[in-house]
Amino acid sequence: MSKMDLHSEEFLRTIMRRQLRLSIGIASVFVLIIVAVPLLNKFAPDAMNTPFMGFTVSWFILGFAIFPILIALAWTFVRRSNAFEDEAVGMVDASTLPVAHETTDESPAIAPAPAH
Amino acid sequence: MTGVEIIPLMFVVGIVLATVGLGIYATRLSRTTSDFYVAGRGVNAFWNSSAISGEYLSAASFMGIAGMVMKSGYDVLWYAVGYAAGYVFLLLFIAGPLRRFGAYTIPDFAEGRFDSKNMRKLAVGFALTISFFYMMPQMKGAGITLAQLLGSPYWVGVVVVGTVITLNVILGGMKGVTFVQAFQYWVKMFAIAVPMFILMTVFGPYNAQVAKGGNPDNHPQIIKESTVYKYPQAGEIKFTSEGTIVPQAAVAAKHITYNADGFVASKEKLALEASKSYTFPKGDKLVFANPVKVELKAGMTVPNFPKSEAWLKPFGPFTSKYVTGAADKPWVPLLYTYSLVVALLCGTAGLPHILVRFYTNPDGREAKKTTLLVIGLLSLFYVFPAMWGSMGRNLIPSLYSNGGTDLVTILLPTKLASPLWGQILSGVTSAGAFAAFMTTFSGLLISVSGGFAHDIYGRMLRPNATPEKRLMAFKVAAVGGGALAMGLGLLVQNFDINMLVGWAFAIGASTYFPLLLMGAWWRRLTSAGAVAGMVGGGAGAIGSVVYTMLVDKGLATAFANGYLNTLLAQPAIWTVPLALTLMVVVSLATQGLVPADIRLKMLKLHAPESLGLKADYIKD
């Protein structure tokens, strides 16, 4: 793939599209679950109110099961998003990068995330 | 509960001293303006996520959810889920871009994104509004908890907690607060988890408590000795058996009767006389117009005890509040549930004191890692409040009598056979509750003072002020903000904590969330579009909630329509789309206002930092 100018429309469009697609993809799984639970409570009450380990199925979902799902979705997003950032850095034509300027942080110990 | 609870009080004093001590210790570490505001961005993801979680877990989370689960059951689980899940939206759409843009506050973002000073003013206005609304319930929580422990008047708790935190903010700034907040997350986690495990080994596990609480054979207990309870304004007695009450003072009350299907049959106003006995049949409800002490006579069952079926299953008393009859019964609770979920999911991303913390991450990558850790830490915490609520239903039903379920986390441990252990564990949960008011209040106070010093003083009033002057402005603003919050806190003794928290979330969801979402992802958004959306959404949310509050206080008349009342009480389901739609429509009509360098701005928002585009706002 040919390298892109950092300030090109093409590069901006590519990174925004890819990031937004990732965010929307994960958000839709998340929203689907959140929307589905009340609907199931409404239209499949017998299944959702079945006793399950002392709770009802629905209580178990909101009381426990949903939390690991949130964590898994967030973890997937962070991993993919970081992988894409690394990829995006490689897409840029290095000659178009801004000249390295002095750090704006007063503490040089905090280096920006290394680019791979 | 008369007199001073010595052991819990010692725990509370301990946590207050530890908070102040840590603040003073941390002062030595913060020297520059940048240190003071944002901890020099040297806070790693673990500490920062603990601090964000510590700051986020407020009185509503530590006491409110447990109390509401006890009171209303299943539907309230959505609060726990929504408070944690809001961070997923924040992570997916906002955390990374916001940090990359290098804006310290939302007003910075608003001005930088649109090149508009007016956007800054509007954003500052909403930040201050949301923060003060969110401070009031913290003050109220502090007031009622100290009243419980000390037998002190309400104002003592407000003034003590308000003063301590204001001092701590002045002395330590954000660096101090970062350590203090992180420490207090772990205090709260310990305080909600460890006593619960001990209580469960004695009284039975969570699932057994839920099963018992939802068992149809679980009927309300009979009150064995006549007892006097304090009722706040709008306090309720819903009779679960025929019962006799004796008001200790003359009071006006609304008397509501219900038909066989549970819908309102009649309403009348009664003027109850002091020291006179009144008997009401099972199922009737009284709502007092003023605070009053009322004796409940022995022989009746505990009032306000929700039926087991309704408590255990979805669409119970909480979401069915505005059902008017058989026609809207199937749909109003569903609408209420969805609107509540929208407010919680979008409102989290609209809280100014939380958003400011993303600047303490060194870069967008670290900001994302922090958010992921926050979701983990909050998920761990939010499993517990429902355990307290379920066990409280079975062990201290007397709290139902006067709507005192908010104190369940404080009082449940006193049910242990050993009074000493009961006091110690109650001390632990009291300390956790104090950690909750203090952290949230200090985070909000920093947000308010920082907003004043950085946005109003530093950018509008005296753009050339030296860092020392700005630091002084920050401290002056903290004193003023703290005093104002205490004053407001004194005024809201009669207001429901959750109503106030609901305001903050609804306003945040309808203003900041659309601004950040659209500002970061839609380059055609203009300042005019953003203003239209924020003002339209904000006005819709504030107007609805204020109206609902006035109805609750008897100062306005409710609509007859259950859907309409639900949309006013939980407005997010229409105010968030309204704000987004206004932003799109007005922006498309004002495309001339799109900043000329919008492509560079979008690049800063979305390109990885290692490409060297980052420019920070705060420099020494």
Report on this model:
The complex is a heterodimer of chains A (116) and B (620). By secondary structure, chain A is mostly helical. Chain A has helices spanning 9-43, 45-48, 57-91; strands at 51-52, 55-56. In chain A, α1 runs antiparallel to α3. The radius of gyration of chain A is 22 Å and the shape is elongated. Chain B has helices at 6-27, 33-38, 45-56, 59-72, 77-101, 106-114, 117-150, 154-203, 206-213, 308-312, 332-348, 352-355, 364-382, 385-395, 408-411, 419-461, 467-491, 497-510, 512-521, 527-552, 562-569, 572-589, 598-606; strands at residues 227-231, 236-238, 243-247, 251-258, 264-272, 278-280, 285-288, 292-296. Chain B is globular and about 75 Å long. The N and C termini of chain B lie far apart (54 Å). Residues 33-40 and 616-620 of chain B have low confidence and may be disordered. Classes of the chains: A mainly alpha (116), B alpha+beta (620). At the A-B interface, α1, β2 and α3 of A face α5, α9, α11, α13 and α23 of B.
In short:
The complex is a heterodimer of chains A (116) and B (620). Chain A has 3 helices and 2 strands; from the N terminus they run ααββα.
Largest sheet of chain B: 4 strands, antiparallel
Mean of residue pLDDT of chain B?
87
Write down the overall geometry of chain B: globular
User: What is the number of helices of chain A?
Assistant: 3
Rounded radius of gyration of chain B (Å): 25 Å
Order the strands across the largest sheet of chain A as they lie in space: 1-2
Task: Please tally the β strands of chain A and state the result.
Answer: 2
CATH architecture of the domain at 6-204 and 335-493 in chain B: Up-down Bundle
